[in-house]
Amino acid sequence: MAQLRDSLRGTERIRRLGELTKITAVLPTLLADARAAVRAYTGKDRAASFAVLAEAYQVAATTLTAFGKEDAAYTALERSMAAAKQSDDPRLEIIGVSSLSWIFSKQGRVADAEHVAVRMAERIDPGFRSEPIDLSMWGILLLRGATAAVRGERPDTAEDLLSLAAAAAARVGVDRLDYATPFGPTNAGVAMVNAYVDMGKPDKALSHAKRIPQVSGLPPTWRARHFLDRALAHAEMRRDGAATRALLVAEQTAPEWMRYHATSRHLVAELRERELRRNSPIRDLAIRLEVEG
Q1: Integer Cα distance of 240 and 242 in angstroms
Q2: Is the overall model pTM greater than 0.70, yes or no?
Q3: What is the 3 state secondary structure string of 55-107?
Q4: What integer best gives the mean pLDDT of the chain?
Q5: Which of 179, 185, 200, 282 has its CA 20 to 30 A from that of 141?
Q6: Exposed, middle or buried: residue 210 (CB in 10 Å: 0-12, 13-18, 19+)?
């Protein structure tokens, strides 16, 4: 079991780095080993094996979503939730619902994405003296619900959920990483920036970004997404130089993630079309990302 858990933690680290190709190499072995452990063990070890299997399938779901395979990701998440029910960790269902909300958002099912996240948040409803991990789980769900509400053009609901998440983050007080998912003051802050970008308020997004003292503690893929949000805001305000610089930071932070991320590629293509010079940083970036056109 110790070796199996070490393998899971290593696979999760690779995912947070955004090394998607490497994930596809190591994940099948982890899944096979976890399934073998479930068959071989009994009692507490079998329940612990199901916990590893549930998390491994969650990694599979998020990786498939990154590749644009949302339907396959949904299947992987269904298997994750089934394994979680037979595990020794009740919090796995919570983080599974968070992943489900994200996948629903990627599928365009924003009402479902908001509903499942908010319903689970209401179900756990931590109190003032709750453990930090439970406040973190609650906050993660609120952020998922807020993202869905923004995309469903429900800005008032989104801002209410973001405010609750910010309060939870302030109560936690520090940036945490639970079940390979960050939450804390920094992540709540970058989520607000993302929401303002999606709301079409680039000036507010950039203003709020200045209030975040440091993002280096976030996992690389989260940091890259934040700099992509900054780039989107700058581009919306026709500050193409600043947008390009933010994109270059995102590429440096998580280069392989950038190559597969659709929004990154679309923005690079847009900025390249607006660039008049034959040789420029944005054109070089487009070549590295193999953006056609």
Answers
A1: 5
A2: yes
A3: HHHHHHHHHHHHCCCHHHHHHHHHHHHHHHHCCCCCHHHHHHHHHHHHHHHHC
A4: 94
A5: 200
A6: exposed
Instruction: Name the nearest CA neighbour of 192 among 214, 217, 212, 168.
Output: 212
pLDDT over threshold 80, residue 278: no
Tokens representing 68? 């644009």
Q: What percent of the chain has pLDDT over 70?
A: 99
Closest CA to 188 of 238, 127, 146: 146
Measured CA to CA in angstroms, residue 27 lies from 7, 40, 56, 191, 222 at distances of: 9, 20, 7, 28, 21
Cβ atoms within 10 A of the Cβ of 255, count?
16
For the stretch 62-95, what's the b/e string if a residue is b when 16 or more beta carbons lie within 10 angstroms of its beta carbon? Answer: bbbbbeeebeebbebbebbbebbeebebebbbbb
d(CA 64, CA 91): 23
What is the spatial distance between Cα 199 and Cα 193, in angstroms, rounded to a whole number?
10
Bridging pattern class, strands 176-178 and 181-183 = antiparallel
CB within 8 Å of 15: residues ≥ 6 apart? 23, 59, 62, 63, 180, 221
The structure tokens listed for 37 are 């452990």
- Here the tokens at position 114 are 């908001």
Q: How far apart are CA 260 and CA 69, in angstroms?
A: 12
Q: How far apart are CA 187 and CA 175, in angstroms?
A: 8
Residue written as tokens 């949302």? Answer: 70
Task: Please say whether the beta carbons of 196 and 208 come within 8 A.
Answer: yes
CB-based contact 137:124 (threshold 8 Å): yes
